[in-house]
Specification:
This protein has 156 residues and is mostly helical. It has helices at residues 3-9, 24-42, 58-64, 70-88, 93-99, 115-126, 133-138, 140-151, and strands at 44-46, 53-55. The protein is 57% helix and 4% strand.
C-alpha cells in the first residue's frame, strides 16, 4: 500500500466533517496541511532542463493526487447531511436544532459563523440561491447534482 493510499484512507475529518463550522482561516489551514502532507508523500522531482532537484508546485501535487481535496469533500458531505436532516421531518430533534431559533440574548460582538452560514455559502458557490433549502432537499436528484457540483468547485 502506497503512502498516497494511506493518506486517502485516513483523510482529515472523515467521519465528523459534516458538522464542522469552518471559517476561511480554518479552510486555509486545512489546505496548507493537505499540501504539506502531499509534499511529504510525493517528495521532490528532478527538473529536466536544469537537472536540479526542486519541490513540486501545488498544481503538480493536485495532478499527482487525483482525489478531490479536503475542502471539497467537507462541503459535499455538509450538503449531503443537510439534505438528510431536512428529509427526516421537522418533529425530529436534529431538525429542530438545525432549523430552530435559540431563545435568550446573544453574546456581545460579531456573531460567530454558524453551520447554516456555511451551508448558504456552499449553495451560493454552486449558483443556487434557494431560500427554501428544506424544499430543495426533498428533490433528491437536484441534491445529487448540487453535491457533484460542489465536488468540482475550484478551491483557492
Amino acid at each position: 500500500m502506497s503512502r498516497a493510499e494511506i493518506y486517502r484512507r485516513v483523510r482529515v475529518g472523515k467521519n465528523v466533517s459534516e458538522t464542522w463550522s469552518l471559517t476561511l482561516r480554518d479552510g486555509r489551514k486545512l489546505r496548507v496541511f493537505e499540501i504539506m502532507a502531499l509534499r511529504r508523500i510525493f517528495g521532490t522531482r528532478r527538473d529536466e532542463v536544469t537537472a536540479e532537484w526542486r519541490r513540486l508546485h501545488n498544481e503538480e501535487l493536485n495532478d499527482l493526487y487525483s482525489s478531490p481535496n479536503n475542502l471539497r469533500v467537507i462541503k459535499s458531505r455538509r450538503m449531503r447531511w443537510a439534505g438528510h436532516v431536512a428529509r427526516t421531518g421537522e418533529e425530529r430533534a436534529v431538525c429542530m436544532v438545525l432549523v430552530g431559533k435559540p431563545e435568550g440574548r446573544r453574546p456581545l460582538g460579531r456573531p460567530r459563523r454558524r453551520w447554516v452560514d456555511n451551508k448558504w455559502m456552499d449553495l451560493q458557490e454552486v449558483g443556487c440561491d434557494y431560500m427554501d433549502w428544506i424544499g430543495l432537499a426533498q428533490d433528491r436528484e437536484r441534491c445529487r447534482t448540487l453535491m457533484s457540483a460542489v465536488m468540482n468547485l475550484p478551491v483557492p
